[in-house]
Design goal:
The protein is an alpha/beta fold. 35% of the residues lie in helices and 29% in strands. It is globular, with a radius of gyration of 23 Å.
């Protein structure tokens, strides 16, 4: 049996999830077999994952698309049953979906919404308050506090469909935190948001974590989300946990470069562009370079001095790209 340490809020041991996927051969015979003698192959979405998280930690959960991040979060929140292994969150087995467990956690998915589209966000918040049995005075106090923290004072009486994407995500966070969960699971919370909205969401999450010592697990394809909020990261690849440790160490080893994007004012031959750095992509007159951090200043100075630049920006490479490059090499020793 899994023994949960008293200071550990999440403990996972050999957690796995296997999905049976039907295999269909082409042609009429394959169609008949698919109906009457269906065969399956087993897909391991999550494979023997183990880790533990302490109260108040903010942990980044990284991996390429299909690596198993969302499946793991769904098992931690009880949305799906694990195939094997053991997991406890705030001393509960998630898939049993106890009412007291559900009051202690919250899940926010950037690709899905819980607010009712045609109603004001405030109506959905009142529904949540009723579901969680939050007294009216407590509801009003929390609503006032969270609304102020998220700068939503004038937005909650508008239909959700009339809010901007950033405002909707803030309202989703408000709804998720209304019952003051101990553990917050965030799956791509800044997906599709503009830069200002991303910064606002990050600042709010950091403030909320510091004020209430809430435990946060965050998945994101935006490196800035992870670097701004998480000192520790879990890295998952093909369903297996391959790294659990300090983010800075991971970045120094496997993402020692920045992405420099330039817009040219006139076309330049690719062989000329290649003289100024490692080219990632060329699309028309937009060129993306991958430049090591220690050479960044020198390389940008050369680019500005020698190339006809209409615009230039510097950013961290997308997590997707970092992880893709990481696992396309043969020198991975995590």
């Amino acid at each position: 049996m899994l023994v949960l340490d008293v200071v550990t809020i999440i403990q996972v041991k050999n957690l796995s999830k296997v999905y049976p996927v039907a295999v269909k051969q082409p042609g009429f015979k394959g169609t008949l077999n698919h109906f009457f003698r269906r065969q399956y192959r087993q897909i391991k979405a999550v494979d023997q994952v183990s880790f533990q998280i302490e109260p108040g930690e903010m942990v980044g959960f990284l991996g390429a698309n299909g690596a198993g991040k969302t499946t793991t979060l769904k098992m931690l929140t009880g949305l799906i049953h694990p195939s094997s292994g053991e997991v406890k969150v705030v001393d509960y087995v998630p898939f049993r979906r106890r009412a007291k467990f559900l009051q202690k956690i919250s899940l926010v998915m950037g690709q899905k919404q819980q607010l009712l589209w045609d109603l004001p966000a405030l109506d959905s918040l009142r529904i949540n308050a009723a579901i969680y049995n939050i007294p009216e005075d407590v509801f009003q106090a929390r609503l006032s506090e969270l609304t102020s923290m998220l700068s939503l004072e004038t937005k909650l009486t508008q239909p959700v469909r009339k809010l901007s994407l950033g405002e909707r995500m803030k309202a989703e966070l408000l709804a998720a935190l209304l019952h003051h969960p101990q553990v917050l699971f965030l799956d791509e919370p800044t997906l599709g948001l503009d830069v200002n909205a991303q910064v606002a969401v990050r600042e709010f999450l950091q403030h909320y974590n510091q004020k209430y010592s809430a435990t946060v697990i965050l998945t994101s394809h935006y490196m800035a989300d992870i670097t701004a909020l998480c000192d520790r990261v879990l890295l998952i690849h093909q369903g297996r946990l391959v790294y659990d440790g300090n983010l800075d160490i991971l970045l120094e080893r496997f993402a020692p470069y920045r992405q420099v994007t330039i817009e040219l004012s006139k076309p330049i031959e690719p062989e000329v562009l290649a003289e100024y750095g490692d080219i990632d992509t060329i699309e028309g007159q937009q060129v993306k370079y991958l430049i090591t951090r220690e050479n960044l200043t020198t390389s940008i100075s050369r680019i500005l001095a020698k190339l006809p630049i209409a615009d230039l920006s510097v950013s961290d490479p997308p997590i997707e790209e970092v992880i893709g490059r990481l696992f396309s090499t043969d020198e991975i020793n995590l």
